């Protein structure tokens, strides 16, 4: 036990990532089970109605600028925008010769798309009625692709940035920004009426679990094979 506790303290990041993987998977399984049994229907519909003017499901609550902001934010979780972010991140990592990190981002993003689309076809859940939708949306509803993929991409990049950041406040900023962006994208999907709340909860859970699983795999690979790391000053660490 003392050895296990010592190892956990020395590799706190890996332990935290493993806990997120386990927690995310358990949360997704719980939500998916509830959705399959139809137990979330009343809750999901109540949230949608709460975000609409009384008696007018076609009108969002809040000022006009909030509607525009939600539309802008939701685009951050689109395949197009996330694809551009991934390409730029890959280009940067390849320039720095960070091969393992580039592979993590590529596998994480590609695997996230495959898992999301596969689950959508498996569950085949219908989206909210057209009267609630403020923007266009296609494909089945569960889980939310925007919520899942934004969590995968932003959390993966945030975790990698935090890993090599020289200062704790920079690590906190990287991880905090990743979480905030993921939350905002998912919340915008609910607000705009293109997803049920349970869709987004499932997307967040599975996206976080997949991102941290990829991070742990890269960490384990580096520990096993001793891949060189780059220090904050840009030189190879011993």
Element order: H for helix, E for strand: HHHEEHHHHHH
Summed up, the domain count is 1
How many E-type strands?
2
What gap, in angstroms, lies between the N and C termini? 30 Å
Q: Structural class of the secondary elements?
A: mainly alpha
Strand content: under 5%
Q: Characterize the overall form.
A: globular
For the largest beta-sheet, the strand count, sense and barrel status come to: 2 strands, antiparallel
State mean pLDDT (0 to 100 scale).
85
Strand order of the largest sheet: 1-2
Rg on CA atoms, Å: 19 Å
How large is the count of helical segments?
9
Low-confidence stretches: 3-10, 228-238
Helix content: over 70%
Quick summary of this structure?
The chain is mainly alpha-helical.
Protein model, in words:
The chain has 238 residues and is mainly alpha-helical. The protein has one domain. 71% of the residues lie in helices and 3% in strands. The chain is built from 9 helices and 2 strands, in the order H-H-H-E-E-H-H-H-H-H-H. A two-stranded antiparallel ribbon has the order 1-2. A hairpin with a 2-residue loop joins strand 1 and strand 2. Helix 5 runs antiparallel to helix 6 and helix 5 packs parallel to helix 7. The N terminus and C terminus are likely disordered.
Descriptive tags:
238 residues, two-stranded antiparallel sheet, 3% strand, globular
Q: Which helices and strands occur, and which strands form pairs?
A:
Blueprint: H1 2-10, H2 12-36, H3 41-50, E1 52-53, E2 56-60, H4 64-74, H5 79-95, H6 99-123, H7 145-164, H8 168-191, H9 197-225
Antiparallel strand pairs: 1-2
Helix pairs in contact: 2-9, 4-8, 5-6, 5-7, 6-7, 6-9, 7-8, 7-9, 8-9
């Amino acid at each position: 036990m003392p050895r296990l506790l010592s190892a956990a303290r020395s590799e706190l990041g890996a332990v935290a990532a493993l806990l997120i993987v386990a927690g995310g998977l358990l949360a997704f399984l719980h939500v998916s089970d509830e959705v399959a049994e139809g137990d979330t229907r009343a809750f999901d519909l109540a949230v949608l109605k709460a975000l609409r003017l009384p008696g007018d499901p076609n009108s969002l609550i809040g000022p006009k600028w909030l509607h525009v902001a939600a539309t802008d934010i939701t685009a951050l979780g689109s395949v197009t925008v996330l694809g551009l972010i991934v390409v730029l991140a890959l280009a940067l990592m390849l320039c720095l010769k960070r091969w393992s990190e580039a592979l993590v981002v590529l596998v994480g993003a590609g695997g996230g798309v495959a898992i999301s689309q596969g689950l959508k076809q498996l569950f085949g859940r219908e989206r909210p009625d057209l009267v609630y939708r403020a923007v266009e949306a296609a494909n089945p509803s569960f889980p939310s692709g925007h919520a899942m993929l934004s969590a995968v991409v932003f959390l993966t990049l945030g975790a990698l940035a935090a890993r090599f950041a020289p200062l704790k406040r920079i690590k906190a900023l990287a991880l905090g920004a990743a979480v905030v962006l993921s939350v905002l994208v998912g919340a915008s999907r609910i607000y705009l009426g293109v997803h049920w709340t349970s869709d987004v909860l499932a997307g967040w859970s599975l996206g976080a679990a997949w991102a941290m699983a990829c991070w742990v795999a890269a960490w384990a690979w580096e520990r096993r094979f001793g891949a060189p790391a780059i220090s904050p000053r840009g030189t190879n660490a011993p």
